[in-house]
Queue: 2 jobs
Job 1
Amino acid sequence: MKTTLTEENYLKALFHLVDNEGKVTINELSKFLNVKMPSVNNMMKKFAEKSWVIYETYKPLRVTEKGRREAALVVRKHRLTEMFLVKKMNFGWENVHEIAEQLEHVHSQVFFDKMDEILDYPKFDPHGEPIPDKDGNIIAQDLQKLSNCEVGETVIFTSVTLSDDAFLSYLTERKLLLNTKIKIIKIESFDKSFTIEIEGKKEILSKKATEKILVKK
């Protein structure tokens, strides 16, 4: 049976919220989706019937391997679509999320497999996030937030956390794109803002921005 649009949105939320032990709380899902707790409870009971989660009253949910795979396949559709829009249709990386939100609910696997082939099987989406393969497997990345780095370090901008269009536009205006080398010049003790150097030019980033930027050394 095909998953519904609502089920796919819940699956995607599980993908983003689950911790390293495969756990997530009803409250976390409620806040993330802006859905009332009783509605989340009812949906998770349905997910338990499909063996996507293990549901026990007053305990965190445990996402099963089957549930993880189903969630990853929804994310695959979203991230492949974003990549196609950027690489083949010349959209800016800040303009693709909303369109991908709509197309991710298309149920034709062959459609997305063909998209994957046309793109030559990309491993990452335009925002640097790994694209799950057709079996739901995903590349593990060893990244850290820019905010956790220290003065004098030079790192490579690799990905963004859950991003919004305004933040991506903010980065584009500063020519801070993926794979850019970032040298940390100064960290303000007052507000933890960063002075960085990119391609010989200095920029100041707020703490909020450095929390959203993921880097590797």
Job 2
Amino acid sequence: MSEEKSTKETDAWFTLSGDVNSDMVHRVFEAVSGMSENGVETAHVLIQSNGGYVSDGLCLYNFLSNSPVKFVMYNAGAVASIAVILFLSGTRRYASETARFMVHKSHATASPGARPDALNIIVEGLRADDARTESILRKHIELLPEQWAIHQYSDLHLTARDAKVARMINDVADFAPPKGVHIRNI
């Protein structure tokens, strides 16, 4: 059997969309279990998500980064907020020319009439989330000082070209499964 045929049999193609939440965590756990059982070595995953819950995104980042399957991530539209951390779990990462990324600090809404001790707990939780996500961002990407300054207080938007300069992606390229492959939705 040729090496090219062997590689095709160990690669698989997937789409993953929606909010980063406990439902997505469950779907990804199930999908990776199936990948492992079916001998998938490399999973090509197109992600479309505007974000969700920080803890769920961190769980997925840690799980996929240490999975027996190698992940190649793609952005063909928008990967934002905690979904960027999920995206960074890929060993290789690509984005379409028209794709965008957005990163920002954590945020929360307090209940009306919340007492100072409750507000303090919320603030401490947000600071902990920001420290965890920023350490992952700094491990994988190289933003300019001006970009880090924007990230400190606002939403930082990156085009595919910006993401390449920041080393968030390996190259500007489309999710393009070979003709005839089965594309599974996670």
